[in-house]
Structures are given as C-alpha cells and as structure tokens.
Amino acid sequence: MKNKGVTRRKFLGRTTAAVGLGVLSHPSFSARVFGANDRLVMGIIGSGGMGRGHMDRFKRRGADWAAVCDVYEVNRDAGLENAGAKATGYLDHRKLLERKDIDAVLIASPEHWHHDHLVDAVQAGKDAYCEKPLSWSIEQGANMVAEVRKSGRIVQVGMQRRSSPAIHECKRIIDEGTLGEINLVRAEWYWNMDLNRKAVLSSKLDWDRFVGSAPKQAFDPIRFRNWRYFWGFSGGNMTDQGTHLLDVVQWFTNTTQPLAATCHGKVYKLHPAETPDTFCAVFEYPGFSCTWTLTYMNSFQSGWGIIFHGRKATLELCEEGYRVYQEPWDPKRYAYSRWQAPKPIIEDLCGGLTSTEPHIENFLESVKSRREPNATIEIGHQAVRTLHLANIAQQKGARAVLAADGKTVTV
Asked: DSSP state, 3?
C-alpha cells in the first residue's frame, strides 16, 4: 500500500490497555499460559458454511479444533471433517462448554442465538470470537457487554474491517483533517440475490432447538436456509451488512450512536422473506447525516462502499481500496458529468480490504497476551445498536430517537 503510516507488522502488534488485576483474579480466568508457538484448542458453535470457512482460517493461524456443535447433523458432520479425527460433535452447546481443555470458541450461529451462546461461553471461562451482528436487540447487546466485562474474557466481534491496515490508513487520513468537516456520509451495498431453496433433511435437524427464543413455528426449510430474512431470527441485512459499514462510519467520525433514525424498506423480490431486501435508512448525528442504502435486486457497482463528503475533500472507500478527491471539483470539466471524476489526490487500490485473516490473527494474539482485540464487545454493540434503531423506525413507520443512555428508544 502506498504512503502507509501503519505497516501490517506494526498494526497487528498494536493492542490496547492490558487486562487489570481484577480480571486476572476472576475465578473463570484461564490458568493456561501460552508460549509463542502454542496452538489454541477451540470449539465451534454453528458449523454452517461461514463457520467452516473460518475454521480453516483459524487452523492456518495456529488453532486446533477439538469440538463442533450444530443443530443440523449435516453441518455438524461437515464441521467434524474440517476439525479432524480427534474432534467431538455436540448438539447442545452447553456440553461443549463443559470441556476444560477448550480455550476459546467460535460462535457462528444465527444471531438470535448469539446472546445465549456468548454469555454461556464467557460464564464457562471461554474466550470467544463471535460473528456479527453481535445481538438480536439493543437490550441483548447491553446485557452481553455487561456479562463479558464481568467475566474478564477476551471477545472479538467478527467485524474484520477493524483489522484492515488499509482502512486504518483511511482513518488516519480523516484524523489528519484532509477531508475537513464531514457533513454527509453515504453507506451502500448492492447485490442481486436469490433465496437459498436447497433441500433440508428434516430428520437430521433439531428444529425446535434451532428456533430457540424465536416464536414457536412449524418446520420450514426456507426459514432454516434463509433465517436472516425473518424477524424472529435476525435483524435482516439492515443489521447484518449494516454492522460492517456503520461501524466504520462511527469509528471514522468519533461517534458511538446516532441521535435518531428514519427508514423505509420493503420486500420487493425475495418473497416470502420478512426483512426488507431493499431499504434506505437515514441517521442523524451531531454535525452530519448518514444514509444507508441496500438492495438485493440489482448489482450495480456490486458490493459495498462508503463515501465521506467533507468540505475540503471526499473519501471513497470500497473492497478494492480507497480514493480521496480534492474539493471543489473543476466546474468547467466536472459539474455536469457523473462519468468522469478528477484525478484523486490520494489513491490506494490494494484490494482485499475485508480479508478476515488479520482479524483472526489479532484475536489469537489477544487470547495469548490477554490484551483487548481490535473489535471489542463494546464496539460490536455500538455498531449494531445503530441498525436496531433503524429497524424500529422502519417497523413503526416513524422517526426513532435514541436517548443519551444508549438504551431508551422513543418513536
């Protein structure tokens, strides 16, 4: 990457304050001291496609898989194949957590299970890498923060942009004042998607356990395969994809929550989904506005992007890298053209900005050093809390206001 102020080696070595003595004296704190070459012993809760992909990445970074838990036997068996011959399979995550030899767990279950899986894990004395979005509701998220801090465990939320050197470089550019005052941010995601209609072997699925805290309902393969599109299991792509992008917005602008949100969204294509496949949310922050737009029926500019509009310059950020454009654009050449942009004053098209490898490496190093990871439990909660607010606004058809306490919502 060009003009880097943070090398990858320096970045991965950065950590925040060390764990205090109060945490070290907690009864659940692991007595195991890791050497530089020691491999962590891990278990996974939720060994679907995403979870199994992470398993391979963890193995490459020095983890051994001893246990696999999933409510669907097909996924459990596939996870065991990834883990190796010595691993044991479980239907009940609590049985996995009883094992004293497991140092940490990867939680890759549907988000309506994240609260119980994470709280049970830290109360059992396990460190955890928990997939995003952190929580199913604002209340759950606040409780998860409290329980993690009470336990003293290391928890990394799977928001890998927090461990991307290129994205850290963008943060530095903003902090140096290159953009000037930012009054508008646009977060966007465009994909052309279809529902997963692959058959489910109901005889190999514990449906009631999968449903868990969601409203009781009859087995439905569409809901199992596409749980993210149903309110009882998820906050939809508002929280799933939005957690990635709104975290960057709040991080770069040194904010932790909006004042209020409005949102319009509907299911236009992905029937019988409940959570919108197309929406536009507007968040009000002190000093700037942020729009968050997603559609799964059109792939124009396929993927994600965030644009920070400052008074001195504009930062455009996406998977390929980033560009900075000086203000103002030459009105004689560009005022009426959407097809030709001026030459950027800063550009780095390094690619791969959302690689999970650095984020996993950061978590493993944090477990060994007992220092905070890049995406702490608080960061995960603050990011998804903003999106929960937008979902409330969309469902109520009204402006949703978040009080300063970060918990009270009025519409």
From this structure: T
| pLDDT tens, position by position, 164-200 | 999 999 999 999 999 999 999 999 999 999 999 999 9
Q: Tens of pLDDT along 314-366? A: 999 999 999 999 999 876 665 556 677 889 999 999 999 999 999 999 999 99
Contact assessment for residue 139 and residue 407, using Cβ atoms and an 8 Å cutoff: yes
pLDDT tier, 2 (very low <50, low <70, confident <90, very high otherwise): very low
What CA–CA distance (Å, rounded) separates 137 from 235? 8
Nearest to 252 by CA among 178, 190, 320: 178
Give the domain ranges of the chain. Answer: 8-162+357-375, 164-354+384-410
250: Cβ–Cβ under 8 A, 6 or more apart, which residues? 256, 257, 382, 383, 386
* Spatial separation of the C-alpha atoms in residues 135 and 145, rounded to whole Å: 10
Q: Are strands 409-410 and 400-402 parallel, antiparallel or unpaired?
A: antiparallel
- First-to-last alpha carbon distance for the chain, in angstroms, is 45
Residue 182 near residue 253, CB atoms below 8 Å: yes
pLDDT for 337: 66
Check residue 34 and give its pLDDT: 74
Calpha distance 86→66 (Å, rounded): 7
What's the CATH fold of domain 164-354+384-410?
Dihydrodipicolinate Reductase; domain 2 (3.30.360)
Residue type at 393 in one-letter notation: A
Amino acid, res. 75: N
Stated pTM of the model: 0.91
**Cα separations in angstroms, 346 against 6, 195, 327, 354:** 16, 40, 13, 20
**Cβ atoms of residues 52 and 181 within 8 Å:** no
**Looking at domain 8-162+357-375, does it have CATH number 3.40.50.720?**
yes
Q: Is the pLDDT of residue 7 over 90?
A: no
SS3 5: coil
